[in-house]
Design goal:
about 45% helix, 8 strands, homotetramer
Chain lengths: ~300, ~300, ~300, ~300
Amino acid sequence: MEHKAAIVLAMFGTTVESALKGLLNIHAKMTVRFPAIPVRIAFTSNIIRRRWQKRAADPAYLHAHPDIPVEILGVRTVLAVIADLQDQGYDSIVLQPTHIAMGEEYLDLGTYVDSLLRMGTVKKTKYKPFHKIALGRPALGTYGPIHPYADDITAAAKALAADAEMARAARAALVYMGHGNEHFPSAGSYVELARRMRTLHPDVLTLIGNVEGFPSLDDVIGELQRSEAKRVLLKPFMVVAGDHSVKDMAGPEEDSWKSVLEQEGFEVHAVERGLGEIDDFANIFVRNAAEAAADAGIFLK
Amino acid sequence: MEHKAAIVLAMFGTTVESALKGLLNIHAKMTVRFPAIPVRIAFTSNIIRRRWQKRAADPAYLHAHPDIPVEILGVRTVLAVIADLQDQGYDSIVLQPTHIAMGEEYLDLGTYVDSLLRMGTVKKTKYKPFHKIALGRPALGTYGPIHPYADDITAAAKALAADAEMARAARAALVYMGHGNEHFPSAGSYVELARRMRTLHPDVLTLIGNVEGFPSLDDVIGELQRSEAKRVLLKPFMVVAGDHSVKDMAGPEEDSWKSVLEQEGFEVHAVERGLGEIDDFANIFVRNAAEAAADAGIFLK
Amino acid sequence: MEHKAAIVLAMFGTTVESALKGLLNIHAKMTVRFPAIPVRIAFTSNIIRRRWQKRAADPAYLHAHPDIPVEILGVRTVLAVIADLQDQGYDSIVLQPTHIAMGEEYLDLGTYVDSLLRMGTVKKTKYKPFHKIALGRPALGTYGPIHPYADDITAAAKALAADAEMARAARAALVYMGHGNEHFPSAGSYVELARRMRTLHPDVLTLIGNVEGFPSLDDVIGELQRSEAKRVLLKPFMVVAGDHSVKDMAGPEEDSWKSVLEQEGFEVHAVERGLGEIDDFANIFVRNAAEAAADAGIFLK
Amino acid sequence: MEHKAAIVLAMFGTTVESALKGLLNIHAKMTVRFPAIPVRIAFTSNIIRRRWQKRAADPAYLHAHPDIPVEILGVRTVLAVIADLQDQGYDSIVLQPTHIAMGEEYLDLGTYVDSLLRMGTVKKTKYKPFHKIALGRPALGTYGPIHPYADDITAAAKALAADAEMARAARAALVYMGHGNEHFPSAGSYVELARRMRTLHPDVLTLIGNVEGFPSLDDVIGELQRSEAKRVLLKPFMVVAGDHSVKDMAGPEEDSWKSVLEQEGFEVHAVERGLGEIDDFANIFVRNAAEAAADAGIFLK
């Protein structure tokens, strides 16, 4: 029996039109690497997906935004995208999240994969809806013995060399705003990434703070104050430069990171560009999908 | 959080246009009973589904068959139908097979339900794609303490009273052709159904043979010969009067049941009418869906 | 890494001392076939196990019953026996039920096997408590494409040739009392076994009735009355000749099968001997364990 | 039906006799808190368990070590301990790991709990071997919305106040040696704990390095050199002061942490005392077990 493979990109999603290019760039890189394989986009956020459903049904919006691709206007859940593929005869799926770090969302996707593979197992093999499903790891890696997460963090740090170079040229500290979370102790990956940046670029002070959880902006400010930094290059450590970048990081409100850092006396230059827009970083997800497929024995010809 | 419910009918499917009415009648009965709830059709047979996909893309076929409903022309897998519903915001699903007996296909559907309910359980509750999924039992019941299968068999026998009446009027034995199978010892339900018919209608000899597995046509002939029957009313014990009815049961070939029975000296009257076309029988699936929903706490307002 | 294999016999159990030989014979046959492999006994019935726990702690009972083997006095749950083996370094388990037919208990054991194999899968392979677990099928087979259940039924019928011979010699009908159940439509296996017996021994009327569910004693009596039988050879169709044999089948109460059949005018000869005491039948479980091990790739050297 | 509850402590284990008191103290604290509930010990390390099995069978060892409790000499796997309890009629289990951080071992225990709860679900309720199983979280918390991990880290930091006090009195930096790992990005919990210690005790420089993974001893030395510290109070951040403490942390070899730090010019005072020996820290596991039981509705009367 012949098996047909497809790739599904599981993205949190964004409603900010200008931020889509971070996501679409990952999609484009994946398509360039696997031109014969369907690459589909799914959004995991129910709220964001419903927003796009409304926009897709709103002629005024469509008229005003002629450039939004149909993959976004008709974006669906991870399950719906995978089920569509199954209905069309694809039984081998590579599910690649565009998440930064291993956390609850990644573990949740793992329950999807496990569940889909358990379907139809009474009659075995022939009637299983899926032959193989592989789950690619997030940008900063995950647990497991095959791909040491520390290597993934080093590779991610290398993909960000241009950021360090920009900070160095401006004699600025490089401060990333990550998302982080209150419910999963994922801070290790972020902190280790910052440390690895400093190993690679010892003359640039690189720090990461998170919107939620540890380390906080206060932690970052404390480190900056203990250093000799005067200037700060501020960038999102998120795949897209969406709401968090526009408002929380670089917005004019007095509690945005830019405002707070300026109030603390630093000269701040904010760059609203998602990590997905950086080709080397986008290609991390391509590598992860390729390796997950190889580990699972899925042939992405 | 408000929950939205939908019903999915999991049918093996058929490619015989005239047989569709057995399936569509079940769909109609379900819709009448639950007018405010979406009732969707899925076909589990990959071969049959692909056949309909080809027909749906064939203008000549569409022109020649203007009456095929769009639910059949665009029929999808169980997973695709359920995932569509989830994408549209339905988180409570009643999955009702139109199977006759509990067998491998029913157990397979059970693995679907279990799997779908395990998705998204890391983050619990809020991010689970499904709130509740209930699996309705087949027409002849299933294992478990809540709905004794013997009661289901009795109810099915009562729904077939018109068949017994027709046989009585013709002074014929009533012989059903079931599907049966070689891989699952499901014969008990069939044999018990026939026995129950004889309890309800002691003056009509009712027998069931299966296309696959036990009891065979030979078993049926043996019983007929031990009786005083001269005439046979032959009917399918399948939801649709599809390929098996047209060819294996009533076809002109010399190995059809009709031909074989005639060769054995019986006068045979074959009625090609699927059980789904009998309203009382179709309503068994409606009852089973309603009870599965009630057992699971799904509100089908 | 070297793997160590063991066999676990999952028995419902019995509290009737004389009935133990049906179980111990199966254990003995398994040990003879696999002399280098530990063969352990587990009882699934909580009530029976607790009874043995009390007896094992009762000096008077032990004094009065010096022949009860320690495997029975210290009998444990299926999970406890398997976990003990794991604690002792056995990572490959063949779980062989001594059930007659595929029913809820067998499906339940399937959930044990599935569950045990899912343990420890985060760290993969090395830290999984079990390498392989195989579930042997019941005497009358189970669903699935590898071992057609009809073949198992034929093999079981052949193992009972001596019963047919005894009935033939006495010009008696052979009536088995099976357990059956109200919650699982397993009657097919029983009915088909009886039919197969009649194919193999056309001159002996063989019937099976069940304590619970279909076919009932009434069904059996109806068939006997439609035949010319005057005498009945009555035997349990259960692994042990336990409570059901002693009381319900052959007891002096007027509602025992023997009494009822006698009241109906039949001459009844009851033989209280469990199927497990019949070597050919006991060896069915040995064959099933061997085949389950082979199918799973467990080496029972 | 009455439910009986028991507590199982899942410990990695140790072969160092003097280190046992870290484990036994947790057991003692749990017993004091739940005097009516059995509290059993299991070791997850196969190597350590086999070592104890050998010792238990060695008369010379037993003679030389009369004080080793029988719970250690006969220590078993997690599964064996839980299955024993089930065999004895306990159907409600609180499984409390004595792990420091959420990592692969904790997720693996989660697969045990899930699997045990799936057993026996065909016949539902009455025949399930377990009614409820609760998994307590590690000392530094885990993911999930109910118990924010940051609160757990703060509580752990507070339990270590005496360490900070000892360091303050000696005008030393406090350096913990954690275990860490190469395969799971768990460093966040460690780094955040150290940061929280500094918030609570701003005048004491508290750092954590890990034997495996990030942060390394080199990272710690870098931080020490950037500070004004001259003296170091060196302690294990592990439940027991076992092999790692005796050799890798405080041993005389020149690559022990003590030796390396001394070579770097620091005055080092090493205290080989496991966290389990600190009553406030041991009680964290008691609290976690109590809260897991409460969350699951297990009544530890």
